[in-house]
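User:
Care to share a sequence and structure tokens?

Assistant:
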Amino acid sequence: MANLRGVQVIDTGPFPAQRFGWSEPRNLVKRWTNDSGAVLDIWQVQVWLGMDIGGRGDFWFTLSRASDGSVLALTNWDHYRDPTGPHAVHMDYAPNPMTLEPGDALVLVYGARRWNPLWPVVMRAHVSVTIWFTEAFM
């Protein structure tokens, strides 16, 4: 087996949480395209979620493969119940890795809705995706 490598492929950076109200939750989208020229076997994925200190609200993401919509990971986090705890979703696909062909992409659909409209004045969330992969042998 080739060497296992890990790399952060998506980092949203801090983004403002949507205020609660009558509007539907707003999804944001980031994608990472496999432009390595090689077929990648993804063995593990970790998606980390963070929120400002004192931030309370709802947090969600879905990570999927663009070519067929296969879901690699997803969650909905109730951030008022445990607002201070670290939160990450770690998926292990062994013994059957998720294959990502050259030109295919990973798509992250994510968002956050704040509970308190007054404090903190600006509430930000953050999502980061790291994959562990090998190059597939054909």
Notes: The longest strand covers residues 40-51. The chain has one domain: 5-135. The chain has a mean pLDDT of 87.
